[in-house]
Amino acid sequence: MRIVLWPAVALAILAGPWLLGGGGAVFSAFVLIAIFATMAYGLDVIVSDLGEVSLAHPVFFACGAYATAISTTRLGFGPVESFLLTVLTALAVAAVIGLVTLRLREFVFSLVTYAVTVVAMTVAANWAFLGGSDGISGIPLFSLAGWQARTDRELWPVAWALLMGAIYLVDAFRRSGLGQRAMTVHLNPELATMSGIDPLRTRLQVFLVSAPITAAAGWLYAYQRAYISADVLETYFLILMLTAVVLVGRRMLLAPLIGTALILMQEKFLSFGGYVDSIVLGGVLILVLSFLPGGLAGLARSGLKMARRGG
Amino acid sequence: MNFAQQALNGLILGHAFALIAIGWTVLLGTARLVNFAHGQMYMIGAFVAWFVMSSWGLPYLLAVPAAMLAGVIIGWIMQATLLRLTIKQDLVSIMIVTLGFGHMLEGAAGLSFGSTGQILDTPLSLKDIYIGDLWITWQDVAIVIVTIAVFIALKLVLEKSRLGRLVRMVAEDPKLALLAGVDVRRVYLGVFAFEGAAVALAAAVVAPRTPILTSMGFQEVIITFVVVVLGGIGSVTGSYLAGLGLGFFTAFFGAYVSQAYATAAMFGVLIVVLALRPGGLAARAGGR
Hints:
Chain A has helices at residues 2-19, 24-50, 57-74, 79-100, 106-126, 152-175, 177-187, 189-194, 199-225, 235-247, 255-269, 274-291, 295-310; strands at residues 136-137, 142-144, 147-149, 227-228. By secondary structure, chain A is mainly α. Chain A has one domain (2-310): ABC transporter involved in vitamin B12 uptake, BtuC (Orthogonal Bundle). In chain A, α2 runs parallel beside α6 and α3 (57-74) packs across α9. The model of chain A has no long low-confidence stretch (mean pLDDT 89). Chain B has 12 helices and 2 strands. The longest helix of chain B is centred in the first third of the chain and has 29 residues, at 3-31. The interface between A and B is large, with 46 and 45 residues.
């Protein structure tokens, strides 16, 4: 069943923009949804599987964006080299953050990771190497083996492949020994220790799996925008990721994608201006966590149950 | 910039930091709650004070309580939304919800006050004092006096009064307090309302030192983290001393090393402290 179903879903997503009329705005929306969903998948692993809330994930996103911006404009790197650099940078930064926060739990962990993001923003806005407050412009077009993506329509297959890669990785992670260990550490730390699992080691490993996924989204974002500045560290991205992860439900493979799609569709097609959109996004996050602990999927399940009981 | 002037700046900055952080200290120490919207509440307090003075022509002495009233209302609404999670002590969800509130407040502030920076001038901030070649304003004097007064009052209330005992009892064991007939919900609502009032007071008193922007909450909250953590979570005296120490550190770092990286340096201090005593901190703060 899985073997037939998943490729069908993947192909349906690939064909999505064409099925929806194939306009430029539709392709742009799909590319952005794919990028931001990939960004959210990295965080999903930490929130849903490890049970911690990392607020440093915008830093990994920025790692990818800046590594790509700098290496393509100053060193002439192509997409493959810049992707490798993105992964390496994210791993290095994740190792440092992971080691520093290794023994911190719950909100102290979140507090420190939040501080990492704020500090990263002040550094990005002030350090000349990272372009300072002007940022880095002139990022070349995405071109691979003689083929160039000049528009979002041409970039869509790349964004789709990135998204599929992220989903595949998260799925593989959940089936792997590491994924099982992470869940054990999350749900029952005592049992984990008794079964010979090293919780600190597991945490660090999950962090190292998660960071490159979010960073890879930053890699494509740099090509899509052609310009990167300290804005990539704004709270918007953090709130977007968190909302995308909790909106639909935890530990459901397509939940971050559907969550991101719902949020971006509101912002692209039902926008009330930036400020009101902030209020809407913050409000959705508050409502889901305060009143819908199971997310939209939980709501649908209890709705179904009630309908069955009624009938 | 001479040494004495920097020391004086540090002293004032330190009192400002302590005052900004006091709401969080009480929130975390007595109710084991966190509020990531703290910085945005500071921003709203500053803008409400600015708005009632510049648009309604209210005097500064009335603008301060107006800002505090706004803080109380926001704090109350937040805690009313969070009550279910608070009773469950689901700190992780509480944290994300407060982040969501911060994002909403920033959007609402942008909508109401625009995105341009403003200057919150008060009658005190325009009057200078010169002592030899040292320079401060009466606003700086007010910061020091208000901070000391708030800390003394708070310490007295928490340690000597029935209300203080009630709040500490709820912090120690909410379920037991509930059994003892304490209205736990009202205590939580009250503590959050106090946090709102305290941070708005801090904003109305401290914000005249710098231009105010609707996006400033993002950074402001870091100062609070560092003060609360350095002071030993929840300790009122500790956070006063931590605020002072951090004020001196920031003044000298800003003057002799780099102004732009002062926040980053502050964060470095936080990391060092956490590396030195991670276990004790996490155990006490997590509350389990």
